[in-house]
């Protein structure tokens, strides 16, 4: 099969591109390298079945040309930061929502069977009720979350009107190798690891009681492939199904490093969710999703990768 991966040189996209290439598929990676890195693809760039194109998803004509002949598109290209979207809402809209519409148009016009859209648990916001199920109300709290939810609706409409099969995967807190700890908007796990490695205390925004559902990136890559190959359509949570507080996360990392530091606490950031955990039963029933990595095992593998980089 021939698959296109937008954002395929990014954190999640590079793992997905590797998994597809290792399974013998033809893979076209579209990435402008604004946040992705060519080095993330070093293990597959010499593969004759892998093509990398440095481009955005902002021009639907060139995008359709890149997608011609593909069987499916994995759409991960986006502005991937909640705080960044609050600071730059128009940039977030163009990179995330306009990009999603362009991908769907390209799929329709090229006769591509299916689009798997990377959505986000951020669409749920802070509404009561846990664990989060796909049929619960949503309450996006940031431009990023709004764009992801609107992208889901575009997917639903394109399926109904044009016959393009679509699946939107609501990623919860994905972690693993290649998350950049140097970004101003870095995710909590690489930021914690970088500080501990530097002999510094983990820095926590808020009181640390906020919870997240952390899921290892290799489980996320596998979920993408599973839903592409299945006939399943709609919206699906992709998570571990386990709730972990930021304080407990810091404690686990300190234990893995065998050091004792007291976290430093700073004011809570706007637009952040207080509690988050997913019900993953729908994905399990629809396409056999079952995460393989525990939080501790995923953290251990992530630390090993960062130390060897």
SSE diagram, text form:
Blueprint lengths: L1 E5 L4 H12 L3 E5 L19 E4 L6 H8 L4 E4 L6 H6 L1 H22 L3 E7 L22 H20 L2 E7 L1 E3 L12 H10 L5 E3 L5 E2 L1 E3 H13 L4 E5 L5 E2 H12 L6 E3 L14 H7 L7 H14 L1
Parallel strand pairs: 1-2, 1-4, 2-3, 4-5, 5-6, 6-11, 7-10, 8-13
Antiparallel strand pairs: 9-12
Description of the structure:
This protein has 309 residues and is of the alpha/beta class. It has a single domain (2-175, 215-239, 277-294), classed as NAD(P)-binding Rossmann-like Domain (Rossmann fold). The chain contains 10 helices and 13 strands. The chain has a 7-stranded parallel β-sheet with strand order 3-2-1-4-5-6-11, sandwiched between helices. A two-stranded parallel ribbon has the order 7-10. A two-stranded parallel ribbon has the order 8-13.
Question: In brief, what are we looking at here?
Answer:
The protein contains 10 helices and 13 strands. It has 309 residues and is an alpha/beta fold.
CATH superfamily: NAD(P)-binding Rossmann-like Domain
What name does CATH use for the topology?
Rossmann fold
Strand order of the largest sheet: 3-2-1-4-5-6-11
Counted beta strands: 13
Structural class: alpha/beta
Instruction: Give the C-alpha Rg.
Output: 19 Å
By CATH reckoning, the class would read: Alpha Beta
Helical proportion, percent range: 40-55%
Oligomer: single chain
CATH architecture group name: 3-Layer(aba) Sandwich
Number of domains: 1
Beta-strand percentage? 15-25%
Unreliable runs: none
Q: Given the C-alpha coordinates, what overall shape results?
A: globular
Q: Which H/E pattern describes the elements?
A: EHEEHEHHEHEEHEEEHEEHEHH
Distance between the termini: 32 Å
What is the count of DSSP helices, taking H or I runs of 4+ residues? 10
Biggest sheet, open or closed, and with what strands and sense? 7 strands, parallel
Report mean pLDDT, rounded to a whole number: 96
């Amino acid at each position: 099969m021939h698959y296109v991966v937008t954002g395929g040189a990014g954190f999640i996209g590079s793992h997905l591109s590797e998994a597809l290439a290792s399974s013998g598929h033809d893979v076209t990676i579209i990435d402008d390298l604004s946040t992705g890195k060519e080095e993330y693809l070093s293990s597959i760039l010499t593969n004759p079945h892998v093509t990398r194109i440095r481009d955005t998803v902002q021009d639907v004509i060139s995008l359709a040309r890149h997608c011609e002949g593909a069987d499916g598109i994995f759409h991960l290209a986006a502005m991937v930061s909640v705080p960044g979207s609050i600071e730059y809402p128009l940039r977030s809209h163009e990179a995330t929502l306009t990009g999603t519409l362009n991908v769907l148009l390209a799929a329709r016009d090229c006769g591509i069977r299916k689009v798997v859209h990377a959505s986000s648990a951020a669409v749920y916001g802070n509404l009561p009720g846990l664990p989060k199920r796909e049929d619960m109300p949503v309450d996006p709290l940031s431009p990023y979350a709004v764009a992801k939810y609107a992208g889901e609706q575009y997917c639903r409409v394109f399926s109904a009107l044009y016959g393009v099969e679509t699946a939107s995967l609501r990623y919860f807190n994905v972690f693993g190798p290649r998350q950049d700890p140097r970004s101003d908007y870095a995710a909590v796990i690489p930021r914690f690891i970088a500080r501990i490695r530097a002999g510094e205390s983990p820095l926590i925004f808020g009181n640390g009681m906020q919870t997240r559902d952390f899921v290892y990136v290799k489980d996320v890559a596998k979920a993408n492939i599973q839903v592409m190959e299945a006939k399943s359509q709609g919206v699906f949570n992709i998570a571990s199904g386990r709730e972990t507080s930021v304080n407990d996360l810091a404690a686990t990392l300190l234990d893995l490093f065998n050091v004792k530091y007291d976290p430093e606490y700073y004011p809570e950031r706007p637009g952040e969710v207080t509690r988050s955990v997913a019900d993953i039963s729908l994905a399990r029933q629809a396409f056999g999703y079952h995460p393989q990595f525990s939080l501790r095992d995923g953290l251990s593998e992530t630390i090993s990768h960062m130390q060897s980089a």
